[in-house]
């Protein structure tokens, strides 16, 4: 506002100084010195306003300063009208500009109070000095005054609308800023990895999950080539293999191999593309958890729909035993019926135990003394008769922290799995069990059999519920092993030994005298 005043005052001073300007303005010659004084005063006031705005911003925001500006402008305009020929002179347009600046500075009632004050002063000048001084008929004066009031109303409406728009714009900017911060926080916290690439395949934005999955934790806010971040992803991107969910094996900075599901999305109307990275192993684990939840619901139905009728069948089988003692053919059928009902009962027990496992109650277990006792107990199981189990010959060894009942079930299931897959013609199969402390707070237990090994096509699925390659199995033994180990903060992995046979590697927390390491 102060700048436009200075420009108008300077232009007016220049016109009054130039002979050509004075003739074009048609000014009374006797009033020219007064007009020059008023123009100099306008320049001085404008410079004063600029100084206050520059060096005293607190005072410049106060209503008193606004009233001083309006009063000073009003006085300058009235003096220019008085010495410049009244409303018929060249300065008649200035009150209209004054109304606009007044509406901007004072707004509302204050602005209209000044309007009526200006109108009264103009009418007093007209009636006191006479029409000869103003050189304007009364009718034209009234029309001019109405125009001033109309301009004041319009200016006030425009200022109010402008302020409302500015306020809404500021609020929208704040909302957009908050939404931007929220979006950034969501991106940073989302489980899926996100990498934003530019046209040169440089990573320009990423979230922590994306950097972790891509194996490049050192990335900062500086664009870096995807070949540097993860060459495997860059190669798959160049080959055009990432437009659908595709599983890619990548290496982390520590050398660990990760299996990732990658999807490429081209962002519309922009030079950027989005890579979405998800841990394939984690997704499969979630699928397994969903299967376990479904299995729990299934187990409840099984317990209700099958267990009760099966009890009746078993009771009827026991009664039938009395009538088939002397009939060999019927006795054979009875044995089949008895065997299969027991098998169904074991399947139900396995499903119920798998779906609703007992919480772990861990305690210290000394492996070198606990395992021989367990194996003696399991030796009575006819299903394990073909196994010859070999343990380390030592009186010392690590101590694990686990639930004994859970660990007993783990070894029983692993040994039964070895016996079932030993082959029909195997008279005896050797199973070696070894263990050692890893030094990082865990104990590693290896169980290796000398059987045919695990088919490569089954390797990734052997821990899935109900997956089995043996018609005699339920497909729940190994999945139960993994679930029981998980309850005891342990893990299991399977592989084929380089010298033949299958090998299962278990990791359990080591006992350090009072807590889990």
UniProtKB/TrEMBL annotation:
Record-annotated Histidine kinase domain positions: 301-512
Top-rank lineage group of the source organism: Bacteria
Keyword Transferase attached: yes
Spans traversing the lipid bilayer: 31-52, 87-106, 111-129, 141-162
Protein's name according to its UniProt entry: histidine kinase
Catalyzed reaction equations: ATP + protein L-histidine = ADP + protein N-phospho-L-histidine
Protein source organism: Acidithiobacillus caldus
Keywords: Kinase, Membrane, Phosphoprotein, Transferase, Transmembrane, Transmembrane helix
InterPro entries hit by this protein: HATPase_C_sf, HATPase_dom, His_kinase_dom, HisK_dim/P_dom, HisK_dim/P_sf, PAS-like_dom_sf, Sig_transdc_His_kin-like_C
GO molecular function: phosphorelay sensor kinase activity
EC code(s) of this entry: 2.7.13.3
């Amino acid at each position: 506002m102060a700048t436009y005043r200075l420009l108008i005052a300077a232009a007016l001073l220049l016109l009054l100084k130039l002979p050509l300007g004075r003739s074009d303005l048609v000014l009374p010659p006797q009033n020219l010195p007064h007009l020059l004084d008023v123009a100099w005063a306008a320049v001085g006031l404008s410079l004063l306003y600029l100084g206050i705005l520059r060096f005293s911003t607190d005072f410049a925001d106060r209503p008193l300063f606004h009233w001083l500006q309006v009063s000073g402008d009003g006085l300058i305009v009235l003096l220019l009208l008085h010495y410049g020929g009244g409303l018929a002179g060249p300065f008649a347009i200035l009150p209209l500009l004054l109304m606009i600046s007044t509406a901007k500075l004072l707004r509302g009632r204050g602005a209209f109070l000044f309007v009526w004050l200006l109108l009264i002063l103009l009418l007093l000048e007209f009636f006191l000095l006479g029409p000869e001084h103003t050189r304007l008929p009364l009718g034209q004066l009234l029309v001019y005054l109405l125009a001033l009031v109309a301009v004041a109303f319009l200016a006030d409406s425009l200022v109010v609308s402008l302020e409302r728009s500015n306020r809404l714009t500021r609020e929208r900017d704040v909302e957009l800023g908050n939404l931007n911060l929220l979006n950034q926080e969501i991106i940073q916290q989302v489980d899926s990895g996100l990498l934003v690439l530019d046209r040169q395949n440089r990573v320009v934005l990423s979230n922590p999950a994306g950097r972790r999955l891509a194996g490049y934790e050192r990335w900062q806010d500086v664009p870096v080539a995807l070949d540097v971040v993860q060459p495997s992803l860059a190669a798959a991107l160049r080959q055009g293999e990432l437009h659908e969910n595709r599983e890619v094996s990548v290496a982390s900075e520590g050398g660990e191999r990760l299996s990732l599901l990658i999807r490429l999305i081209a962002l519309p109307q922009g030079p950027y593309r989005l890579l979405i990275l998800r841990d394939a192993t984690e997704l499969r684990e979630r699928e397994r958890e969903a299967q376990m939840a479904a299995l729990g619901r299934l187990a409840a139905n099984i317990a209700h729909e099958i267990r009760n009728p099966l009890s009746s069948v078993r009771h009827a089988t026991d009664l039938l035993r009395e009538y088939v003692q002397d009939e060999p053919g019927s006795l054979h059928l009875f044995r089949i019926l008895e065997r299969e009902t027991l098998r169904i009962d074991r399947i139900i027990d396995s499903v119920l135990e798998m779906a609703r496992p007992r919480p772990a109650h861990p305690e210290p277990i000394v492996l070198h003394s606990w395992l021989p006792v367990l194996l003696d107990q399991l030796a009575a199981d006819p299903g394990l008769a073909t196994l010859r189990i070999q343990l380390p010959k030592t009186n010392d060894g690590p101590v694990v922290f686990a639930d004994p009942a859970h660990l007993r079930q783990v070894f029983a299931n692993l040994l039964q799995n070895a016996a079932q897959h030993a082959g029909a013609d195997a008279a005896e199969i050797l199973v070696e069990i070894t263990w050692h402390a890893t030094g990082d707070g865990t104990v590693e237990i290896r169980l290796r059999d000398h059987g045919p090994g695990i088919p490569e096509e089954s390797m990734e699925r052997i821990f899935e519920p109900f997956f089995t390659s043996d018609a005699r199995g339920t497909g729940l033994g190994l999945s139960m092993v993994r679930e029981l180990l998980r309850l005891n903060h342990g893990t299991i992995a399977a592989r084929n030994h380089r010298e033949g046979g299958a090998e299962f590697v278990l990791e359990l927390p080591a006992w350090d005298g009072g807590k889990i390491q």
